[in-house]
Amino acid sequence: MKKNKPVWLLCLIDLAALGAALVVFALFHHVIPTQKLALNLVSIQSTAHADALEETQETDTIQAADSAAAVAVSAQTLLPSVREADSLSEQTSLQSTGVTVSLSEHEYLGGSVKYYLADLWLEDVTALKTAFAQNTYGSGYTDTVPSMDSLLNAALCVNGDYYGNSDEGVVVRNGLIYRANPTDADILCLYYDGTMEVKAYRDFDAQAEADQGIWQAWTFGPSLLNSDGSAVSGFNEGRHMNGDNPRTVLGYYAPGHYAVLVVDGRGESAGLSLDELAGLCEELGFTLAYNLDGGKSSVMTFNDAIVNQPASGGRAISDVIYIAEDSL
């Protein structure tokens, strides 16, 4: 008569099989590069969107194509307390017809935190581009921000939402909808008319968004500001994510006027919690602010140089947001 295996041995065999399955899953999902099938819905840039953007830019107090001096005046008007507190910070600008990028370095919370702010004025929102690592949509394809900066001939380059780390959420890049899968995360949408909105997945319909003229969409979050521009409080994102960390934020003032905020952390700069980050975004005068991938992913380059002090030297990621040198 065949003797039955002990229960403990059967449990051990089951655990070993489960472990092997998880290793294989992780290998194929996170390590081995795998191209993904895309929805390939093309967004429509309508004449109405172009007319709306032109009308908005004509009525703005300061145009995206104004001089760097006018941009500085605008920033001081929007951010009086921050500009006064950081009056010694260095500022660098790049400008051409239709695009102005102004970069400045600041200290916050009594000097315990350092952050970098890229102020963007864009006459045409398509100057704000995105790119996949290794020029491929899928999982496992990664590269560093400096490397992608070089390959893209970028004037300004920053990490995105690390879409390749998950199959959830929405991915829209340069007017093409690649993915629209269910997610609990906030979705940031940027449209051809220059407007920016945060949506829940239940409010995101891929075909309707394509018809509306969506240009970019990211899935990470959370959204940091209420509709009146005040800081959101009481984030429920878990201790690890809500702790003091390096951060990357995409900020929005009005159509054609945006900002990229990178906060250093895990070093001489302490980093910020989500509550502190939301408070900073309120102080900066953003009308909308969206938290992108942070931690070691938070890297910004400008004029072919790394601007911030990435945690542990940074890491390879799946996507970037950039403004090309040929836009300037």
Automatic annotation (TrEMBL):
Keyword match Isomerase: no
Which keywords belong to this entry? Membrane, Transmembrane, Transmembrane helix
Q: What is this protein called?
A: Phosphodiester glycosidase domain-containing protein
Task: Determine if Ribonucleoprotein is one of this entry's keywords.
Answer: no
Name all Phosphodiester glycosidase domain ranges: 154-323
Q: Which PANTHER family match?
A: N-ACETYLGLUCOSAMINE-1-PHOSPHODIESTER ALPHA-N-ACETYLGLUCOSAMINIDASE (PTHR40446:SF2)
Looking at the UniProt entry, the stretches that span the membrane are 7-28
